[in-house]
Amino acid sequence: MDVDSAVILQPTLIQRARRFPLWQPLAVRDFRLLWLGQSVSLFGDQFYLIALPWLTLRLTGSAFALGTVLMVAAGTRAAFQLLGGALSDSVSPRALMIVSSVVRAIVTALIAIVVLLDVTKLWHLYTLSFIFGMVDAVFFPAYMAVIPSLVSKEELAASNAMLRGTGRLMTLLGPAVAGIVVSTAGLTVAFAVDTITFVFVAVMVGLMKKSGSPAERDEEASEQRRAGLKGLLVSIREGLRYAWSEPVVRALFLFICAIEFSYAGPASVGIASLAKTRFEAEGATALGWMMSSLGGGMLIGMLSAGSITAGRRRGPVLIGGAVAIGLGLALLGFATHLLIACAVLVLLGAGGGLGNILIMAWIQSRARAGMLGRVISLLMLGMSVLEPLSFALSGFVVTLNLRAVFVGSGSFLLLACIIATASPALRTSD
Questions:
Q1: In whole angstroms, what is the distance from residue 430 CA to residue 422 CA?
Q2: Do domains 19-237 and 246-426 have the same CATH topology?
Q3: How many CB atoms lie within 10 A of CB 396?
Q4: Average pLDDT score over residue span 78-97
Q5: Alpha-carbon distance 402 to 269, whole Å?
Q6: CA dist., res. 192 & res. 106, Å (int)
Q7: What counts of helices (H) and strands (E) characterise the chain?
Q8: 3-state secondary structure 122-188
Q9: DSSP 81
Q10: Average pLDDT estimate for 143-167
Q11: Which pLDDT tens digit goes with each residue over 92-146?
């Protein structure tokens, strides 16, 4: 190849890279602002997730107290989940995201001051958890509902992959940085950093031009706002009725519930028990490698989902991802070497990451205008209920037979995949 040919080829390669599906949403200004703000916010969340447990344990010395603090956040989030979804369908999601970020910034700033003055009480932490749980219940449905107003349907998978993939990177890198900051600079600085990131996301969302307002999607939103709380309760009931009456939404909801129930317990209780029982010689290092393999696999799956154009094939692709999870769970029960276990976890994580993005993009493109927030909140509520059940069942089965928890959960999910193949709703994107 001569020099002139190489010069001509170089721009072509750059242009191809720019046309790569995963990067396309970043060309949209509003999405770019949302992505930047949420990425910084998720990095800041890692400081909160390290500082809060550390502060609770330092204050009380009680693991039980820590458990109750975390339980307050989870319980409040579940209790307000459907209400948050109804709000995001009747009020501008952009406005809800701004208010949520400002409230979280104020609360974390107050906690930072309390810690600085050394007057922290346990009730402060319960209050913090309650407010965060309530705000999270509002923020996430609004965050998911605003995405379809920013990008085209064809870019939804790539958009979710960019957002969730970057979030996965933040959860891999953030805790280590947060731990160093807490150890060297103290808890006050950690909470202050989180406060700054909430302010940052509020500014980024405020700069967005599109609001994803319900008026753009559904005329009934104005009536819901005028009806107040009663209107929101009616709105919740309508959302539940719609989710069950829409074949694709119903099928996706049931399928993701099967995945979550099969995956949550084995991925936490099961993997930790496997590391302790079979790889005890490596100690906690084994668990670290296994969880990193799972997280790396999920990142691969998420980015892969955003890099392909599934079209009418997304049903079979989704089921294929779930099959990878089911096979991975079953095979993990027979893994006797750490390297094999890590390889299986990469496969398992890739299937989970792929399914996560495809399901969210499919729901965003399929849900009727003005219903997306309620559908997302229902999905989150289902996961909130199924996760503790999966944890408890896995813990019980592990005490009887470690291998059974993996083989049983994997077999259950593979059975769900077989049933899913008979569903017309999951065989087409129409």
A1: 16
A2: yes
A3: 12
A4: 88
A5: 10
A6: 10
A7: 16, 0
A8: HHHHHHHHHHHHHHHHHHHHHHHHHHHHCCCHHHHHHHHHHHHHHHHHHHHHHHHHHHHHHHHCCHH
A9: H
A10: 87
A11: 889 999 999 999 999 999 999 999 999 989 999 999 999 999 999 899 888 888 8
Please report where in the chains the tokens 């083989």 appear, as a residue.
407
Please report the pLDDT score of residue 215 as a whole number: 46
% of the chain beyond a pLDDT of 70: 88
| Lookup: tokens for 315 | 């049903």
Q: Which among 28-42, 250-264, 388-402, 416-430 has the top mean pLDDT?
A: 28-42
Predicted model pTM? 0.79
Q: Which of 120, 54, 155, 57 lies closest to 365 in space, CA to CA?
A: 155
Q: How far apart are CA 54 and CA 304, in angstroms?
A: 36
CATH classification code of 19-237: 1.20.1250.20
Domain ranges of the chain: 19-237, 246-426
CA atoms within 13 A on the CB side of 386: 19
Task: Give residue 48's identity as a one-letter amino acid code.
Answer: Y
pLDDT level of residue 71 (50, 70, 90 thresholds)? confident
Return the CATH architecture of domain 246-426.
Up-down Bundle (1.20)
Mapped onto helix, strand or coil, the DSSP state of residue 92 is coil
The interaxial angle of helices 29-60 and 156-184, nearest 10 deg, is: 30
What are the tokens at 346? 């990469």
Other beta carbons within 10 Å of 132: 23
Give CA–CA dist 157/124, Å, rounded: 40
- Answer for the pair 191, 48: CB distance below 8 angstroms, yes or no: yes
CB-side exposure of 368: number of CA atoms within 13 Å?
Answer: 14
